[in-house]
Every structure is written in structure tokens, then in C-alpha cells.
């Protein structure tokens, strides 16, 4: 079989093997120990709505059926919630999947795409996976630098630009007026992916009004964060009808599980649970802020369910990441400057926050001295 | 906003809106009535292993966690089952998703892909979605015509050819020796997608031995059929390590749900349930055969959990499809000749088979006369 080979495309041959994230289970297998506090995967530590869990349990023996390929009931509920048309909503198996499909709509080999250096790696993964070229602008003071993003779009003529609001991994946010100014300033024919995975945790002023008639904005929403349904894989895009039609041309029509559709719908109908999560997250953010101050660090203001703690340098952050892992605490450190001087930690339950606080205090005592370039 | 537009790629602009299948829920919404017997979506009417259902219920409140991005436990179990290495298995959110990714590995705009005319529409959907060109050869006497497929591959130099064994939608099968001859005859650099979604229902002689060291074959297996887990979306590919690495470069690493992983593993560990499904399906196939004979039709021998019934002509088949739908019975008729003279019906439970038999007998009485070209 020496002459037999796999006829990969050029894009695939040129593509290095990469994984956007190493998951917590994979880390546990590598280290041979289980995490006591799972605070690094941007999950919701406050669990699932009991109504959603009950609805999912109820369909456990019904999953011989494919899920509805049109996610009809869920789209109808989402349309009502957002005051838009069902034809302006595309449901997918999580934002990761939808991001890949949106990239595929506009990126061919060689297409330039603009994003911030250190923003969502899975978006970058999709861009590179379709042969696109990333043009990355640096963060500025913990914020995505909208002026720099816009300048990069103009300079490169990129048809696609990514922004998350609130921001992952920093937790910062821009207000609706700023976002709207950015959108209006986009050149014709540049599509903005506005990733709003964490919007439910943000001040109301962070979310622009819905305008799905604008063909140049597609907004990403998810059930993985405040709804706590990450492990069922369901999210949605809000955009122009033509964009939804474009997604319909390429999406996996039967890809959203029956379990996810049922769980998401039940969760949407449990606003008390969701408000409870939001309130507990707000409380946890204040806890982390106090903890950071006590240890001489600085917690960045966050509009998400995680907090980026500036520990004073990249070397320190890396040290703390590893030391916390040895203590059974899973957090993340963004891999690029100037973000890499922060430890990003999900808001855990009070118990998980106590484990994190105790572990951080312990390992911080052995921390290396701060260096200039950290 | 008149000058604002979505910067679709040329492939997307040229791509017509299409959906591989209209799902049963969508049909119910169109007609305004629920199906009494859901026998058209290639689902398993014998449900889910009670062990799998219990395992899925147990994680219903754990789904705030993403599923393991490496599906480690499941891959280990599958590797043991098939006697191959974990690195030769790629788990995905159903065969539909994996098929799309395999197509993406080798198809760029203009690439020719060979398949049978009337074979799995979702494969074709992916090929066209990546700008590939389908070269389709006709079925022969209810079988995929391997000689014609091979001739087409040689003639076109296609890097990709699709075959299902057992066949969907006809239920026919080739034996392992025939498949192996086909594989050996492939030109170097042509990848065969061997879709074995229904292999558990087939005679043992239909499945070639595992040889994942051959870089030119990728086999598709699913939990949607005998395992009855269609609505959780989970399947896997078996192939060369380099092919699995290729999939790892582009797949959605966190795309397989926690629920699906847990359910699939529990189902794998319930061989008695699976054997029960296989036995009941065999019994149901015999029922359909008798029913067909009684009504003057011919049921094709089937190695799957559905049966294609030759009703004598395309016009008749279309009539029966619609008349059965009016009776609340959901079946399918393949859209292209010479397959379109068959009604394809899933093996239902005894109750569903009785509903189908009664409805078919009733509507067959009003059937149009057979025409020559039907």
C-alpha cells in the first residue's frame, strides 16, 4: 500500500494540527488527578434549570427520534422573546458550530479576517480551517480596541470581523452606542460576528437593540452560559434573512439534538432560575474582587460569569496556572500578551470559590517576583 | 442600508437553497396532522436501551459541563470492540456531521465526487456545499453498481467516492469480498466513504474485516440506528490515523454532547438490548415481505431496519406516499429512477406495522394502473 494516500486538499495539507482548547477531562487524564474546582472552561457552575433537567429526563427514552430539523418550537419562542421573525434566527449545535458555518459563508482560501489577538480561539480555528488569514489587532487596556479593529478592516478589506461583547476572555464590555457606531462605520460588505455568549450577565446597556435587517451583523447567542446547557450543544444566530438562508444551505439540518431543543425551551421558560444564576454570579464576582485585592492583585470589572485577575505579569500567571492545577483547581491564562498576565476564573459556587481562594492564597505565597515585561 | 450586503463566497452565491430531507415534524406542521406511524425517517422504532436511558437521565442536571472533547471513554470502548487503536477512531455529532468533515478534507470547488444516483442525499448536500461536482451512476437491480462506480472513478479521477453497505435507501448489500475487491481496485488517491450505518442489521458476511491502515477507506458507524440514539447525535468514523488527524484539524472539538457520550457508552454495554432490536427487525422484515406479497407487491431483500417495497411504478409509489400520509403514516419514496417505484418503510413495532398494513391495504385499492415507464 506504499503508493496509497489520502487526497487532502491544499488547505488541509497546509493546516497544522491544532485544537482550540484542551478540555478539562483531557487535562485530568494527563495529570492523573481530578479537579476539585472546574473553573476554567467557561461553564456555568450554577447548573441547569430544574425544569430543563426534568424536560430532558422526560425525553431520555424518546431519543430514537431525530430532533426537529427546523427547531420550530424553540425558534418561535426565541422570536417572541427578541421581537423578531423566526426567519431571522438560525439554531445550531452550539455557537462553535454556527461560527464555523458563518466563517464558511464568507471565507475562502486567502480571505483576510480581522479579530483581536487573544479573542476566541475557536473562531480563529475555523478561519484557519477554511484557509483564511487572520489579521489580529492587540487588546487595549483589557478591551477589544474597536478603532483598531475598524482600521484593520479598512486597511485589509476583510469581509469578516469578529468581536465579542461582553469580551471573552477579559470580561470587559462596550455599551450599545459604541457597538452601533462600530457597525455603522463598517465598510459595505464586511460582516461583523458579534458574539454575545455572555450578554445575559452584562448591564442592559451593553446590548444594542435588535436590527436583524442589517445584512452586515450576525449575533451569536448561546444556551451554554447562563442556561447551563453547554453539554447539550445548542445556540443560535440572529441575523438578516439572507444570512439565515445562507446558513440553511450548509448547516447540518438534523444536527441539533432532541434533548437540547427540549432543554433549551424549558430553560427559556424558567426566568426565575436564570435571574438566580445572574444574581449569584454578580455576588461571586464581588467575592473575586475582594479576594484579588486582599492578595495584592486586581480583578478587572466583568460583565460575564468569569473574572480576569491581573496578577502582575505573564510569568506569574503561568506559575499560578500550574500551581493551581496541582491544587486541583482548573482555571485558564490567555496565551498572548497583554492578556497573559491575567488568571481567568469562572464564578463558581460558594464552595468552589472557597476552594479557589484557599488554593490561590497558598500558591501565591510562592509566586515569582514580578518582572518588567511580564 | 441599500448598499450593505453579505459578502458570500462564490460557492455560496452559486449554491441553490436545498435541504437534504424534510423532517417528519415539518411535514406534520405542513399538513396540520400528527403521524400515527413514523416510519419514514430511518429511525429505530424499538427505542433506546433502558440502560442508556437511565444513564442519560442521570446526567440531565450535569449538562452545564461540556462533553469530553476527546470522547475518551467511548473511543476506548469502541477501539476494544473493533480491535483497533483509539487513534483510528473519530467520534462526531452523528454521521451527517462527520460526512461533512470528510468531504471538506478532500473537496474544493470543482472537485468531482462519485456516488450512486439516489444514494444518501446528505452526502451529496455536503459535496455541493463545498463546491464539489457530483458524478452519479445509476443503481442496478436495486444494488449500488460497483463496476460502474469504479469506472466513473477512473474516468473522472475523482478523489472521493461514496458507497453505503448495506444500502440506503434500497436495503441491499454486497458481501465483504466484493467490497474488498472494490477497495483494492481503487486508484491511488481515491478515498472511499463506506457508510455502514445499518451494518448491525446485516449478515456478518457483509462487513469486511477492519483494516484501518488503508489510507483510502473511511468507514462510518452510527448510534442512530440499532442503538436508537438518533436524537442525541453521535457516530464515528474508522480510518487511517492520518485521516483521523485530518478530522481533528477541522472538527468541532466540543461538539459531541455529554448526553450522547454517556448514552452511547451505556448502549454499547447492553448487547442483549441490541440483539433484541436486531431480532425484532428481522421479524418485522418478514412481516413486510408477507404483506407485500399479499398485495401483489415485491419487498426487496433487506439487510437494514427498513424495507423497499416495489409497488410496480413511480406514479403508484408517489400516489401511495401521499395517500399513506393522509392516513397518518409517514414513509418515503426515493426521488430518482429506478428507485422511485419503491416505498421505503422502516420496520416498526408490531402496532406500527399493523397501522401501516391496514393503511397500505386501504389506499392500494385506489392505486392508479401501472404504467410502462413507471
Which keywords apply here?
homodimer; 374 residues; alpha/beta; Aspartate Aminotransferase, domain 1; Aspartate Aminotransferase, domain 2; 2 domains; seven-stranded mixed beta sheet; 13 helices; 12 strands; 40% helix; pyridoxal phosphate (chains A, B); Pyridoxal phosphate-dependent aminotransferase (chains A, B); PyrdxlP-dep_Trfase_small (chains A, B)
Brief account:
Two copies of one chain form a homodimer. Chain A is an alpha/beta fold and 374 residues long.
Characterise this structure.
The structure is a homodimer of 374-residue chains. With 374 residues, chain A is α/β, with parallel strands linked by helices. Chain A folds into 2 domains: 22-47 and 272-364, Aspartate Aminotransferase, domain 1; 50-268, Type I PLP-dependent aspartate aminotransferase-like (Major domain) (Aspartate Aminotransferase, domain 2), CATH 3.40.640. Helices cover 40% and strands 13% of the residues of chain A. Chain A contains 13 helices and 12 strands. The longest helix of chain A has 24 residues, at 271-294. The mean pLDDT of chain A is 96. At the A-B interface, helix 1, helix 2, helix 3, helix 5 and helix 9 of A face helix 1, helix 2, helix 3, helix 5 and helix 9 of B. Chains A, B: Pathway: Amino-acid biosynthesis. Chains A, B: Keywords: Aminotransferase, Pyridoxal phosphate, Transferase. Chains A, B: Residues 39-360 form the Aminotransferase class I/classII large domain. Chains A, B: InterPro entries: Aminotransferase_I/II_large (IPR004839), HistidinolP_aminotransfase (IPR050106), PyrdxlP-dep_Trfase (IPR015424), PyrdxlP-dep_Trfase_major (IPR015421), PyrdxlP-dep_Trfase_small (IPR015422).
Amino acid at each position: 500500500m506504499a503508493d496509497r494516500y489520502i487526497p487532502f486538499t491544499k488547505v488541509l495539507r497546509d493546516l497544522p494540527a491544532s485544537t482550540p482548547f484542551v478540555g478539562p477531562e483531557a487535562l485530568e487524564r494527563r495529570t492523573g488527578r481530578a479537579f476539585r474546582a472546574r473553573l476554567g472552561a467557561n461553564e456555568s457552575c450554577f447548573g441547569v434549570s430544574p425544569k430543563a433537567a426534568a424536560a430532558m429526563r422526560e425525553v431520555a427514552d424518546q431519543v430514537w427520534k431525530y430532533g426537529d430539523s427546523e427547531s420550530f418550537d424553540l425558534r418561535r419562542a426565541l422570536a417572541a422573546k427578541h421581537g423578531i421573525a423566526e426567519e431571522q434566527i438560525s439554531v445550531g449545535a452550539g455557537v462553535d458550530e454556527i461560527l464555523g458555518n458563518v466563517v464558511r459563508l464568507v471565507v475562502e482560501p486567502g480571505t483576510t479576517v480581522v479579530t483581536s489577538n487573544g479573542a476566541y480561539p475557536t473562531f480563529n480555528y475555523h478561519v484557519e480551517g477554511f484557509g483564511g488569514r487572520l489579521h489580529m489587532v492587540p487588546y487595549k487596556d483589557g478591551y477589544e480596541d474597536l478603532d483598531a479593529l475598524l482600521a484593520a478592516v479598512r486597511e485589509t478589506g476583510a469581509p469578516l470581523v469578529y468581536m465579542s461583547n461582553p469580551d471573552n476572555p477579559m470580561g470587559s464590555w462596550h455599551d450599545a452606542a459604541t457597538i452601533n457606531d462600530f457597525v455603522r462605520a463598517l465598510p459595505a460588505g464586511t460582516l461583523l460576528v458579534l458574539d454575545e455568549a455572555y450578554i445575559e450577565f452584562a448591564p442592559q446597556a451593553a446590548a444594542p437593540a435588535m436590527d436583524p435587517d442589517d445584512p452586515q451583523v450576525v449575533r451569536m447567542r448561546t444556551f451554554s452560559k447562563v442556561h447551563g446547557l453547554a453539554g447539550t450543544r445548542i445556540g443560535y444566530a440572529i441575523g438578516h434573512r439572507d444570512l439565515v438562508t445562507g446558513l440553511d444551505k450548509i448547516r447540518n439540518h438534523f444536527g441539533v439534538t432532541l434533548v437540547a431543543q427540549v432543554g433549551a425551551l424549558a430553560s427559556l421558560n424558567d426566568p426565575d432560575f436564570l435571574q438566580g444564576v445572574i444574581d449569584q454570579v454578580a455576588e461571586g464576582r464581588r467575592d473575586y474582587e475582594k479576594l484579588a485585592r486582599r492578595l495584592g492583585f486586581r480583578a478587572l470589572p466583568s460583565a460575564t460569569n468569569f473574572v480576569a485577575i491581573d496578577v502582575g505579569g505573564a510569568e506569574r500567571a503561568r506559575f499560578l496556572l500550574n500551581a493551581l492545577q496541582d491544587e486541583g483547581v482548573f482555571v485558564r491564562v490567555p496565551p498572548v500578551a497583554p492578556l497573559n498576565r491575567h488568571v481567568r476564573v469562572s464564578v463558581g459556587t460558594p464552595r468552589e470559590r472557597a476552594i479557589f481562594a484557599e488554593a490561590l492564597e497558598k500558591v501565591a505565597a510562592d509566586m515569582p517576583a514580578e518582572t518588567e515585561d511580564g
